[in-house]
Specification:
Rossmann fold, 10 helices, Epimerase_deHydtase, 15 strands, isomerase, UDP_G4E, NAD, alpha/beta, NAD(P)-bd_dom_sf, 325 residues, UDP-galactose 4-epimerase, domain 1, 2 domains, four-stranded mixed β-sheet
Length: 325
């Protein structure tokens, strides 16, 4: 039996694929390569190129590879850009999830791990986010991820008395960084680490957006979690589903304390050996001082923990990006 990893040729998905294989499970990648990278597909792993919107292809992939479950990582992940492209975001993230669930139902596949997002919380009233913190997504991206969670919930209710009742969980996280494989790096043009790395490679100075926040050093604080830890949590969730063990509908994969942008910049300078003083730009509208999630439930059920220091996060990401040059 296998686990189908949608978006398995992407930065996060390809790490999930490697973690599955390392755990003795059989991953199968389904990816249309719209943002995935063909070279991220490990040798020997089955790869189906196509869209999650292709209902027939999704069902055929599930049947052909005797799928035990799906780890659904594919999606349009750019929160800021989603404001300009809401229809595209909803098509990929909402309709794509609906199609996967429909194909799973037809193929009798009952387990799904959904890669959700801390964007479902929007700008919460509390600096420390827990699973039941109010959901107020501030972008079409965040809304689409929350709707995805609703789809899983509703399909589980609808299939509760069937031969294959849906078992599911959603994993929410903020900023995924680093690399657990030197051949895989973050290719997003919108994430902090690749933005800073590309600036340094080009001989330019990275920028901090605002240094007057109500935090210890004046720069805003967020969760930064290593991609290797994120991948391990997906695999632990898949195993728990397949084993019929109790599982929560959603888990926050958070650090509990967070890191400031200045701390990240200081670590980048230390690790790369490039001495720079970041430029200070204006605040981004609506950017809160601090948002950090706890990971207590995930630690209890999914062996979630922060296994990497900030310097290790930077080092692994920088080395993977350098190897690609």
């Amino acid at each position: 039996m296998s686990w189908i990893v949608t978006g398995g040729a992407g930065y996060i998905g390809s790490h999930v694929v490697r973690a599955l294989a390392d755990a003795g499970l059989t991953p199968v990648i389904l990816d249309d390569l719209s943002s995935g990278v063909a070279s991220f597909v490990p040798e020997g792993v089955a790869f189906v190129q196509g869209s999650i919107l292709d209902r027939a292809l999704v069902e055929k992939t599930l049947r052909d590879h005797d799928a035990e479950g799906v780890i659904h990582v594919a999606g349009y992940k750019y929160a800021g850009v989603s404001v300009q492209r809401p229809l595209h975001t909803y098509a990929q993230n909402v309709e794509g999830t609906r199609v996967i669930l429909e194909a799973m139902d037809a193929a009798g596949v009952a387990n799904i791990v959904f890669s959700s997002s801390a964007a479902v919380f929007g700008t919460p009233d509390t600096a420390l986010v827990v699973e039941d913190t109010a959901k107020r997504p501030a972008s079409p991206y965040g809304e689409s991820k929350l709707i995805g969670e609703w789809l899983l919930r509703d399909q589980a209710i609808a299939t509760a008395d069937s031969d294959a009742p849906l078992r599911h969980t959603s994993l929410r996280y903020f900023n995924v960084v680093g690399s657990a494989d030197p051949t895989v790096y973050d290719v997003s043009p919108h994430n902090l680490f690749p933005i800073v790395f590309e600036k340094l490679i080009a001989g330019e100075t990275p920028r901090i957006n605002g240094d007057d926040y109500d935090t210890e050093d004046g720069t805003n604080v967020r969760d930064y979690v290593h991609v290797g830890d994120i991948a391990a949590a997906h695999v632990a969730a898949a195993k728990r589903l397949a084993g019929g063990e109790p599982i929560e509908a959603a888990y926050n994969l958070g650090s509990g304390d967070g890191l400031s942008v200045k701390q990240i910049m200081d670590a980048v300078a230390r690790v790369t050996g490039i001495d720079f003083a970041p430029e200070i730009g204006p605040r981004r509208p609506g950017d809160p001082d601090r948002i950090v999630a706890t990971g207590e439930l995930a630690a209890r059920d999914l062996d979630w923990k922060m296994r990497y220091t900030v310097d290790e996060m930077v080092r692994t990401g920088w080395e993977a990006r350098q190897a690609a040059s």
